[in-house]
Amino acid sequence: MKSAATASFTIVALALFGALYVGAKTVISVDDVQSIRVDLDLSHVARRVDERFLSVAIDASLITEEKFMNLLNSPKLRTLAKALIPAFLRFGGTKQDFMKFNPRGRSFQARDNSSSAVLGNRCHLRLELPPLLENRLKQEWVLQSKTLLQEELEGKYKKTKFSEYAVDLLYAFANCSGLDLIFGLNALLRTSENTWDSTNAELLLKYCESREYVMSWELGNEPNSYEKKAGIRVDGYQLGQDFVHLHQILQQSAVYNSTGLYGPDVSQPRDHRRDLLTGFLETGAKAITACTWHHYYVNGRDTSLEDFLDPEVLDTLATKINEVLEIVESASPGKKVWLGETSSAYGGGAVGLSDTFVAGFMWLDKLGLAAKLGLDVVIRQVLIGSGTYHLVDDNLDPLPDYWLSLLYKRLVGPEVLKAEVNMNSGPKKPIRVYLHCTNRKSTHYRPGAVTLFALNLNKNEVTVILPDHMANSTIEAFVLQSAEAGEQSLYSRSVKLNGQVLRMVDDRTLPLLKGRELPPGEHIKLPGFSFAFYVLIEAQAAVCK
């Protein structure tokens, strides 16, 4: 078969789209046969993202009662986390600006009698929760989550303290799972001059340094909302100076003098948020390793199923990314930009949507678009924590977005290839396609393989026809669909891979994620309301070797 290394090829997708109705509202109405042409350029890498591009977060709300940090000793949760490496693990969120390190505080003891230092640095001791204790904590966490949600709704946040034990549990989880920890410090500890009071942070840093805990740092979460949440206003200029102060402290540390520092974790740009980000970069850009911002598509309290399937809603991300990239490039050319916290809906997620199959359309499209436009890392809110946008449920079982994330990790490499989509369907584009080199660590694929991933936001199946020279190429398909049929399928909290429902084999074992090899010459068929990864094993892309 001839090489496609310097060629572009075209995918023609043919689908007969009818109007899609959810309730009484028309979401997409495309009545005629549509052809979709996607020119895929395998001759050069358009962008290269960090190998930890898809990363995850633990919400700081987990520490509001220290006993819940023991959930991080769950063997099931560690199994799920380890499967997502390489990745960053961010510990932060709203509650980080209301928590304070309190050494020698009372701690909730696990069964192991080892010192807390051993907790953090040793993995082979198998410091695991007894099943009865794990089940009790999971039940209590459900009630705690409701309390935290009420706190969020009222906008009144209780201050909390945490001890060395909580830090040890967090670090042990990250360390034993192979995740790179980023710890979010409290920026609302202020002096009378409204500068950051670093006293408590220095106490925490000293403790972590004494234990030789290798981690990176953040300072504050969504500073644009400080006035609303705490009655304190911090402008961008001052915030930048606060980061410079923290950077100077880190420089004096034998352990953290070359560690990462990320910020300012501002919400997506709008009005004064743009000014805050600009002011921050003017004074603080030199202190940070990468510039972080947050993005959510919709308000979790008033969104709908239609929003999760609306191409126009998905397209809003591109506008926000370009705005941030423009601001950062103007103030600090070449600075890496991360989505430091992101999911589908803000306010803790959308009940009945953010943890279901339909959320995968927003998540996979965000991953594709963020890499395509130049973001280096995307941190998913959350692996575990309060809200409804988590990757695991109340029993710590994986939800659809977890399985989607796992497949992405295994099949998609950091090299972004160019894909140009041409459609006749007007502004709404119900079929979305992205292309990367296949993950080279998936060793059974040949060098030069590429991974095409696609989303079908319509109810009708799409036939994808590859050009003649690829017609007999070997293609391995990984098609994700709701585990349920009928009108409620998009609300499912289970997912099928090539027709098989995905479940853990046991608490320590994930199932084999088997692709389906398409017979030579068989066209790709992307089912309605599905997303899929197609590994073109014989693409022979020189840039992917």
Automatic annotation (TrEMBL):
Keywords: Cell adhesion, Disulfide bond, Glycoprotein, Hydrolase, Secreted, Signal. It comes from the Eukaryota. One of its GO terms (biological process) is angiogenesis involved in wound healing. It is found in: Secreted. It comes from Cyprinus carpio. It catalyses: endohydrolysis of (1->4)-beta-D-glycosidic bonds of heparan sulfate chains in heparan sulfate proteoglycan. GO terms for molecular function: hydrolase activity, acting on glycosyl bonds. It holds the Pfam family Glyco_hydro_79n. One of its GO terms (cellular component) is extracellular matrix. Its EC number is 3.2.1.166. Belongs to the glycosyl hydrolase 79 family. This is Heparanase. Its main location: secreted.
